[in-house]
């Protein structure tokens, strides 16, 4: 019929794309000559042979030496030599186990972990985690540069693909930790396209830590209060800073407070340091009340204590003006630590609006002006939201114990802390005292655990280390 298509014409279907979409340009696929494939594999073999002495110098040197001895003296001499080496290593391991572990054990472990854990699973883990990049139908992966092992963790140094950032890894720490079978993962930036992934092999802070020994000469800038994840002492700085401790009920805030007080005991005894305590619950700090130069357990008494601290701070600043810029603890001008347990009671929960206003003004004044003249605020808090505590940014050093929500991690430790591995919201409820610490000037959170100071330890502290000047200075329930 007249409307029928001509024999040479093309019939257009309803699903046919418009002419502008009908063309797709693709690179032609050409068969690769066998000679090029063989040459590529030979080039890779040459590169591997050249790199081996630099990557595994001891193993390559041992293999070359064994080969030369075999060629010169025969296989019996090689067997005798290796037997002597084995005996020497055994003696080294038994006689000097620490140095053997450092120079031999951890290096062998690093080589094994590199090959068996990371190199073998590198591509599938990164592809599934979304860290592999594709360009012109070719896949690019970050490259492992080096793997080192410490007593507790693996450190994988990685060179990033050009055009990517460390934030890509920071946003995938959970996927990387699960992919390589580690409890957690943290990212450290060393330079452009150079990052280190830290994978703990086990939880070194799983066991409770008993109360630490009282130091003979306390360092108020580095008080031992627990252990870090790498096994080194966790030293808390109080002199010259302010510290905010945040955690839900039962997370171990009391362990941090009492460990810090315990580490200061000699300074409290000789009068070069003082603790002014505010304890609205009357259950935590009241147990060691005789250790404190000032004590308050009601809203009105707490505000009076804080305002007295502000008055002394201003009087000291007036004396220091034009004469000295930093504070040295003395009996005349002692280092004063204002310990605030459940500070939200004063800033948000107290029914008297005037008390809340006065308390907030006093805390803001102490935290903004006090550290240069020897005043420190050590505050404990459960809820870090702004409407509860809007003075968080005035505390340079922050400690995040177990938290309720993931969003609270960045509220306490600052933006990006959770992306760097500070998963305080995932701390197990059976691990009180475990926390992440972010210090002033350092973006990297450190996992720590505070020592547990028991009631018996506090009894011993009050019996043996109570300052002689504390009598008559305590304010209880608002009475001076």
UniProtKB/TrEMBL annotation:
GO molecular function: ATP binding; DNA binding
Domain of life: Bacteria
Keywords per UniProt: Cell cycle, Cell division
Record SMART domains: AAA (SM00382)
Family matches, as PROSITE patterns: FTSK
An example Gene Ontology biological process: cell division
Name the record gives this protein: Cell division protein FtsK
InterPro entries, per the entry: AAA+_ATPase, FtsK/SpoIIIE/SftA, FtsK_dom, P-loop_NTPase
Keyword presence, Cell cycle: yes
PANTHER family: DNA TRANSLOCASE FTSK, SPORULATION PROTEIN RELATED
Record bears the keyword Calcium: no
